[in-house]
Design a protein that fits this description.
This protein has one helix and no strands. With about 50 residues, the protein is mostly helical. The longest helix has about 50 residues. This is Entericidin.
Length: about 50
């Protein structure tokens, strides 16, 4: 293989690795957001019960 071919393959592999790590980060942000919403709703219910 030539140097140009190896460089191209290396660049493609690096791009794929970067894109896959971005997908994991976006999924994690979605999970964190869902957990925050659930915690906020739970706190609101506790406050409402305490007020009664």
């Amino acid at each position: 293989m030539t140097t140009k071919t190896l460089a191209t393959i290396g660049a493609i592999l690096m791009a794929l690795t970067t894109l896959s790590s971005c997908a994991n980060t976006i999924r994690g942000i979605g999970q964190d957001t869902a957990n925050t919403v659930n915690a906020t709703e739970s706190a609101g219910r506790r406050v409402a019960r305490a007020a009664n």
